[in-house]
């Protein structure tokens, strides 16, 4: 079943298109890799799918099966986050905000889910530590745990293993693969062609284009 | 008469109690939202909005509108929503836009007051609008009640929206993907900030409001590393500084606003030193 379908999609910023004529189909259970050099619009594509950027042309259709509040998103860390006073637990728990509904506070189930995901990524022991005191790789795992808290049907990741050492990279791929096996649809931006070859059910390779609309 | 008796005497006057209640509540509200503003890199917004409020106040006084709030409040709320909800990639950059609005309103406000209003005590009027006046000591019970009601609404909103406010402050885009209505929260937060700023104009004047918003948060950031502890500590510190400032101002006869801000500056210094010692 197709969850997301992009038809003749043009993406970019302002009047500058970075990719034109993209036709993409993402089916339920896909492990979809988006690969390509820097500047080919990988992040822009993901941001357009998520609705942060407007498409410059074409359409994106979402299946009604896709619960749009159950999407997990792993962004690249930005500078404002890096000195933000927040504990690991506060951040991971915020992944459950889609479950709040009209309730003001997180339930026991929310806290349990946050704990499970912290344990899964081996950051439970640093739950009371501040995000800004962690290393880049640890911060990335915190944000992944947050994404996992939110993801019930789909997980979108922008270079999840960036800056990781090989051991953690492998662990991360294993974790994502086991999620995928349990039915999660995964969309991942990566530079890692070997990983794409090994795990992807579909791969989209973006090449450099220079056109304006 | 010794000091304690002097204090007792002063605090037997209802106007001193009114000032204390209003001062504490406004400082509390300002520091609550200060955390979000500072972390979102919007510290300058207090300045921008309060100067704009000054401009609006000038217009209201020239038009001889008895209740100036009728003009000042809507103008400030509107500007707050415009500034905080503007897209980051607009042609005029956010900080430049805020500076333009703020100094523009300040200059035009003074100009309008100068041209149109009777020059009886202009410099006194302007000075008290900019630096807070003894106005805080002439509050009417109705004004105190309004401050109390607004503060209760602001604090209750903050408590009930705490988790959403954290999420929107930390990562707007993730919050949006998770189904949080980011735009709605930003608009509500902007409106509350505008209300707090207009209320705080009575207390510390429009030039000094930013101090109430920024100092307690930045002081808390020197010592604490989680969102919850930073929020709680900055509120406590802000209230403490307001109480100390009003006490000193009443007893020593110094201007209220600058005295509170001086207490905030001192508290920041202390937090900074403790933070440096603790981290080394």
Which secondary structure elements does this structure contain, and how are they paired or packed?
The complex is a heterodimer of chains A (213) and B (280).
Chain A: E1 2-13, E2 16-27, E3 31-36, H1 42-50, E4 57-62, E5 71-74, H2 79-82, H3 88-93, H4 108-120, H5 136-150, E6 154-158, H6 166-181, E7 185-190, H7 193-199, E8 202-206, E9 211-212
Chain B: H1 3-10, H2 14-39, H3 45-62, H4 69-85, H5 94-116, H6 122-131, H7 141-160, H8 162-170, H9 172-177, H10 182-204, H11 209-223, H12 227-252, H13 256-279
Characteristics:
heterodimer, A: 213 residues, alpha/beta, Rossmann fold, five-stranded parallel beta sheet, four-stranded antiparallel beta sheet, 7 helices, 9 strands, B: 280 residues, ABC transporter involved in vitamin B12 uptake, BtuC, 80% helix
Describe this structure in words.
The complex is a heterodimer of chains A (213) and B (280). Chain A is α/β, with parallel strands linked by helices. Chain A has a domain at 1-66 and 189-213: Rossmann fold, CATH 3.40.50.300. Chain A is built from 7 helices and 9 strands, in the order βββαββααααβαβαββ. Chain A has helices at residues 42-50, 79-82, 88-93, 108-120, 136-150, 166-181, 193-199; strands spanning 2-13, 16-27, 31-36, 57-62, 71-74, 154-158, 185-190, 202-206, 211-212. In chain A, helix 4 (108-120) packs across helix 5. The longest helix of chain A has 16 residues, at 166-181. With 280 residues, chain B is mainly alpha-helical. Chain B has one domain: Orthogonal Bundle (ABC transporter involved in vitamin B12 uptake, BtuC). Helix content of chain B is 80%, strand content 0%. Chain B is globular, with a radius of gyration of 19 Å. The model of chain B has no long low-confidence stretch (mean pLDDT 84). Classes of the chains: A alpha/beta (213), B mainly alpha (280). At the A-B interface, strand 5, helix 3 and helix 5 of A face helix 8, helix 9 and helix 12 of B.
């Amino acid at each position: 079943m197709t969850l997301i379908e992009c038809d003749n999609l043009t993406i970019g910023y302002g009047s500058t298109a970075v990719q034109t004529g993209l036709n993409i189909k993402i089916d339920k259970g896909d492990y979809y890799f988006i690969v390509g050099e820097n500047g080919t619009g990988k992040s822009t594509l993901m941001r357009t799918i998520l609705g942060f950027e407007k498409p410059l042309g074409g359409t994106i259709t979402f299946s009604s099966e896709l619960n749009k509040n159950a999407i997990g998103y792993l962004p690249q860390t930005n500078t404002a986050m890096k000195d933000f006073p927040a504990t690991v637990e506060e951040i991971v728990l915020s992944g459950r905000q889609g479950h709040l509904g009209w309730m003001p506070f997180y339930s026991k189930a929310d806290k349990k889910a946050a704990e499970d995901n912290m344990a899964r990524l081996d950051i439970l022991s640093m739950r009371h530590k501040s995000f800004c005191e962690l290393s880049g790789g640890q911060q990335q795992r915190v944000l992944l745990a947050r994404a996992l808290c939110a993801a019930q049907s789909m997980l979108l990741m922008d270079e999840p293993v960036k800056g990781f050492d090989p051991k953690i990279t492998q662990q991360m791929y294993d974790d994502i693969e086991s999620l995928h096996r349990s039915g999660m649809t995964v969309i991942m931006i990566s530079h890692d062609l070997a990983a794409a070859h090994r795990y992807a059910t579909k791969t989209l390779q973006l090449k450099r284009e220079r056109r304006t609309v | 008469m010794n000091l304690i008796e002097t204090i007792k005497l002063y605090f037997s006057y209802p106007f001193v109690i009114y000032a204390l209640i209003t001062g504490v509540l406004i400082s509390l509200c300002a520091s609550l939202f200060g955390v979000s503003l500072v972390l979102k890199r919007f510290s300058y917004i207090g300045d921008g909005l309060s100067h704009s409020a000054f401009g609006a106040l000038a217009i209201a006084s020239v038009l001889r509108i008895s209740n100036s709030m009728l003009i000042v409040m809507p103008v400030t709320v509107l500007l707050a929503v415009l500034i905080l909800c503007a897209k980051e990639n607009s042609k005029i950059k956010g900080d430049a836009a805020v500076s333009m609005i703020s100094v523009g309103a300040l200059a035009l406000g003074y100009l309008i007051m100068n041209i149109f209003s009777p020059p009886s005590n202009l410099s006194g009027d302007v000075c008290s609008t900019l630096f807070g006046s003894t106005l805080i000591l002439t509050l009417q019970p109705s004004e105190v009640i309004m401050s109390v009601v607004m503060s209760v609404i602001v604090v209750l909103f903050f408590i009930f929206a705490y988790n959403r406010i954290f999420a929107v402050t930390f990562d707007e885009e993730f919050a949006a993907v998770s189904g949080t209505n980011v735009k709605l929260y930003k608009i509500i937060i902007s409106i509350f900030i505008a209300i707090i700023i207009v209320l705080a104009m009575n207390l510390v004047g429009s030039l000094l409001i930013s101090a109430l918003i920024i100092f307690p948060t930045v002081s808390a950031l020197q010592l604490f590393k989680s969102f919850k502890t930073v929020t709680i500590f900055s509120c406590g510190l802000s209230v403490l500084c307001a109480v100390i400032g009003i006490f000193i101002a009443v007893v020593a006869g110094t201007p209220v606003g600058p005295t509170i801000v001086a207490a905030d500056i001192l508290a920041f210094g202390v937090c900074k030193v403790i933070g440096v010692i603790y981290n080394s």
